[in-house]
Structures are given as C-alpha cells and as structure tokens.
Predict the structure.
Amino acid sequence: MSSVEIDPDEFEQSLGDSAVQVPYQRLRNDIIAGTLRPDEKLKIRDLRLRYQTGSSPLREALSKLTADGLVTRTENRGFRVARADVDTYADLVQARCWIESIALRESIAVGTTKWEYGVLIAGYDLDKAVHSLSDNRYVPNPEFERLHKRYHMALLGGCNSRVTVGICSQLYDHATRYRLLADVKMFGNSGYTRGAEHRDITQAVLARDADRAVDLLCAHYRRTASLLRSSDGAEPEPAPVSAA
C-alpha cells in the first residue's frame, strides 16, 4: 500500500471547510472550551444575539452538534449542551484507547521518516507553548490548545486512514472539555507532569517501540479520568474562558 500520511494541519483545515461554517464552528468551539457550560440550555433567541446570525443556520448547526454528541435535544424542551460527567468520560477514554492504540501501532509500523519528523516538530512546538494565560489560575491558551491537538493527531497521522484519524479527531474534541476541567484542578501542582508524558510518548514513538508508546498514550488519557474521579463526585465547573 502506498503511503497516504495525513498532515494534522491540513486535516483540521479540511474539517473546517466541510462544516456548516461559522455558526456551527463557533458553537462547537464554545462548547469544547466550556464557554457554554455542560447542560446549559441553548435558546435560539439568545444564540442569534450571541453569534449575530439567523435562526435557520443555528438550527442546522445545533442539529449537527447533536449528531456529534456535543448537544442534546429533548422533545418540547429544545437543545442543551451535553452533560460532562465522569462516567461518560471514562467510557470516552476507553474508546480512545481502543481506537488510538490501533492507529498508533499502524503509524509506528508503516510511518515514514516524514511522519517521524512531523511528530518530532509537533512535540517540540507543544513543549515550548505556554499552557495557561495566567500565572495565578488556569486560563486556557488557544495556541496551546491548537498545538496540543496537532501533536496528538500527528502521532496517528502515519496510519494511512483518514477515516480513523477523523474519528480520533472527534473523540479528541469531546475529551478536551474534560481535560480543561482537570487542568483547573491540577494548576500549580508540582507533581503535574503532562509535558513529561508527551516527551516520553514521543521518545517511544521515534524508537518505534509500539508497546511502550501505546501504554504511555493510554496512561496519559487515563490520568485525566483519574483526576476527575478523585474529585468530590460532583460535576465539575468548566475552565475559565480566555480573552482570545
């Protein structure tokens, strides 16, 4: 089979080009970032004012987000942001581990030197990015978030399957809501080592050690689930919203 390695930047751009354009993308981004809170009611009238658009594009965007699993719709009660409970996240983590384990093993098996270089650069850029826009509390940095997804998609980009990478991209976006909650809890904790985890994953990938790379990647995901599970059991609050 000839190589059809997937560039993570080009892949994300292609997703944006095929979306329901601005209302869908803005709603989606605000849900993932926590600007629109879990279980928040989404009233068409309020959304029209917020996004300066008409009712029809918003309803189309909400229907698409319902299909994505980021919005729920109840008969006679309208649309709401999907809940973000720890049990759902545990199920999401398991799905990511199953699917990404296969994709990462295939990338390691058939990925070229160009793929390796992409992983190395994506990891380097992420390692240099500022995680929080504030030194006193966790405020998500949009550039860090962009580079973080770019890194995780780069890991899988050598698997020769756009469908698989597309599924992983969607699962990543769902998981980001929960990761931001964990980041709020762990901000300032000297034992918090996500950067080191990324470097260890990169090292294992470049060494073509599939077993170790998969183990590290799954442990990386399960750590966030463990952090949320160790809280008081209540549904956590979303991360503060950046000014960007």
Summary: The longest helix spans residues 86-110. Confidence is low (pLDDT under 50) at residues 15-20, 232-244. The CA atoms of residues 116 and 206 lie 6 Å apart.
